[in-house]
Amino acid sequence: MTDNEQLAGIYPPSAFYFKVKFGDCNETVDTSFQEVSGISSEIEVESVIEGGENRFVHQLPKGVKHPNLEMKRGIASLTSPLVKWCKTVMEMDFIESIESKAIRVFLMNENKEVIRGWLFDSAYPVKWEIESFGSTKNEVAIEKIVFSYTFSKRIV
After folding, report:
1. Which terminus, N or C, of the chain has the lesser number of Cβ atoms within 10 Å?
2. Known InterPro entries for this protein (predicted)?
């Protein structure tokens, strides 16, 4: 943490003000979400036992793995570009090739300035779920969209 971050009051940053961008950085449609989760990386390891050495087991790195990226929001209309993309992937029986897009998630401060950011490359929807309805609840109808992606990196 730098002195500037401490003085600006952005450490630790709050997690409730964020924005999401799909594809081209100039796209601003369909970027409001209630929740984003799955921003994580983990090194997969392989256990190797050394012959004659019984005190420990070597843990050798195999590669980096990422969980799926999950986003929740109120159910959008059929005219939503994100809904159209999900429908194309989920309902077209792979007649057309799946179009992947970059997804960027930005954490914002109170002045609408980006303070952290992550890029998820070559992402596409792999699950599109509508959360349960309940006649005794007074809640917004929520859709959850889960994305697979090739790799992620912190960009800010």
Report:
1. N
2. CHP02241, Phage_T4_Gp19
